[in-house]
Amino acid sequence: MVHLRSLLFLVAGLAARLNAKSSTGDSVLVIVEPKQQDNYSLFFNGLKEQGYELTFRAPKDQGPLVIEYDVPNFAHVILLAPEQKNFAKDVTPQSLVELLGKKTNLLIALSPKQTPLSSLAAEFSLTLPPPGTPLVSYFPKREGSPSVIPVTVQANSVVSSTLKPVWFSGIPYSLGNNPMLVPILNAPAESFASETDGGSPDSLVDAAERGGEGLWAGSQLGLVTGFQTLDNSRVTFVGGVDVFSDEYALKAISKGVPSGNGDFVREVAAWTFQESQVLRIDSTSHHRVNETEPLEQYTTNDNIVFSAHISRYDPKASSWAPYSGINDIQLEFTMLDPHIRTALLPSPGQPGKYSVTFRAPDRHGVFKFVVDYKRKGLTYLQSSTTVAVVPPRHDGYPRFLSAAWPYYTGAISTSIAFFLFSALWLAGDSREKKAKGHKAE
Hints:
By secondary structure, this protein is of the alpha+beta class. It has 8 helices and 25 strands.
């Protein structure tokens, strides 16, 4: 009865997300052992019902190729072979990093065993404990293995706050200081990484010494973590492949409380495949106040209006819609360093439009309108537009300045005095000549 109720909850959650598709493509390559494929049927069937085209391949198979003629053949890749030590030639840590550079998203499950995927995780600022030290917890009290742990899901930018606790079994890892990391699920505070012998004190000390990271324990350890590149490609590392299994999706947390594994892995996949939290800048514009046409150059102290139109991807409609939900985006007007940094606020009554008016600095040069918005879990918004700021033309200044009247008076009086002096000098010279002429006669 409990299994039936859990299955109904799972089906209802998946039905609410039918026809949701990725913003980057629907082709998915799943690398998994054929004999283990049925263990994750609920997860795979949910992706198929949404419209994803799944292609299955064994880890050692030579085809279908991940990259062909330097072009990825799939929009997304799922690796559910964490204990596999040998992969095909086109599935290596280097090729997977190359895939990210070509805007292919990755969903990767790890294992307590040492595999090539362990070295791949290190490239993304994830430090794994020594091999053979899975996560262990004896709280809450329950039947079964201490390495199968119920974990409460904390709401963040990737998963919602309504998810039930999830079952986890696998390896934790410590997170580096890389700002591109996106923590999704952390270990419980009372859990720790231990040898598979049940966590004796000797094995804990040995694991800490071999790991070089101190005691592997507490909520600072990550279990599911995302990473978003500057090109907005996404990769997610899951510490245990069993998180995706049908067994954990149907296993109740307690009497009458189903697990949240089904919904959790679906939301993680939605973020990884760029269904959720996907934004883009559709266009930008700039012009002087009371004008509409953009200029290639502005004059110092001009009042300039800058606008950006931002939209958000709707996976259910497979379309982009104007989005005005950002309140902390900024505009920088830079020439090497920002000369102006100001808030770019939503325009009332105009969905998706963000606008600001500012005065150009009293300095000429080549400037840029720069929007650089980076928040964990959201796609990065970046825009740069170059314009020139020039001094006013010779006829652009006021003809007379009231503050300059002392200088005007001095210049005019000097000119008049010079004219009078010259006239008097010339007149005096003429009289002297006439007087000399009379004496000579």
